[in-house]
Amino acid sequence: MSVLGDGPPPSAGEVREALAGVLPERSLLDRALDPFRRFFDWLGDRMPSPSVNNPNVASGGISAVGYVIIGVLVVVLIALIVLAVRRWVSLPERDRIDEDGPTIVTEELDDPGALASEAEALLAERRYREALLATYRQTVAELVVRNRVPRSRARTTGELRGDVSAGLADVADDFAALTTSFEAAWFGAVDVDRSIVEQAGSCGATVTAAAIAAGRAPTPMDEDRPAEVVEL
């Protein structure tokens, strides 16, 4: 270890070695961080210093090795951020999807025709993810106007699956497949292409046809209203 006033100042590692003899034993976590400290010490030795004549650094700037290391660190940092973001927005566990799922404002879905036109326009523009979302909302709108699902400010996709299973059991699997595609597109877990949108549209058409055939379901108000008797 260098003596103060004799040569360059001690490095961070030399200081830690000196302190290790007088300080209490470090924790396991602290010792586990040693490789990272040594790496940053090594990196710091290759960075320019205004007061220390560092032989590893060319006069007036960072060495070529320093530039390479910095570039690698930046790339790794960007990759980690991208992976973290993708994991954060990725599709949740299947049981969580079935239980909750994204929330749909069904009371605003009262014009299936407009949504069908929107889906077709988005598909023509190759905006496949948005086209799939519009296809799902169109199908839900078809169910809303026929009282097959309730008008609500907050109806999850899992609850909508339950509504269809209870009232249109024959097409429950088709609606579940459509919902799965919608959820995957919603959470950005998959890349949506034309074939996925067309398959979702086929499922939606099957559900819509079943809802039309079954007719408008009576609301609680309809059930409570006495039948009108007309005397001839």
Question: What does this entry look like structurally?
Answer:
The protein contains eleven helices and two strands; from the N terminus they run H-H-H-H-H-E-H-H-E-H-H-H-H. With 232 residues, the chain is mainly α. It is elongated and about 90 Å long. Mean pLDDT is 75; it is low at 89-98 and 221-232.
Distance between the termini: 115 Å
Number of helices: 11
Number of domains: 2
Q: What's the level 1 CATH class of the largest domain?
A: Mainly Alpha
Shape designation: elongated
**Which sequence of SSEs, written as H and E, runs from N to C?**
HHHHHEHHEHHHH
- Beta-strand segment tally: 2
Averaging pLDDT over every residue, what do you get? 75
**Secondary-structure arrangement, i.e. CATH architecture of the largest domain:** Up-down Bundle
Rg, nearest Å: 32 Å
* Low-pLDDT ranges: 89-98, 221-232
The order of strands across the largest sheet is: 1-2
Tell me the CATH topology of the largest domain. Four Helix Bundle (Hemerythrin (Met), subunit A)
Helix/sheet category = mainly alpha
The profile of the biggest β sheet is: 2 strands, antiparallel
Strand content is: under 5%
Structure characteristics:
disordered C terminus; 2 domains; Four Helix Bundle (Hemerythrin (Met), subunit A); 232 residues
Architecture blueprint of SSEs:
Blueprint: H1 12-20, H2 28-32, H3 34-45, H4 64-89, H5 94-99, E1 103-104, H6 112-124, H7 128-144, E2 155-156, H8 157-167, H9 172-187, H10 194-214, H11 220-224
Antiparallel strand pairs: 1-2
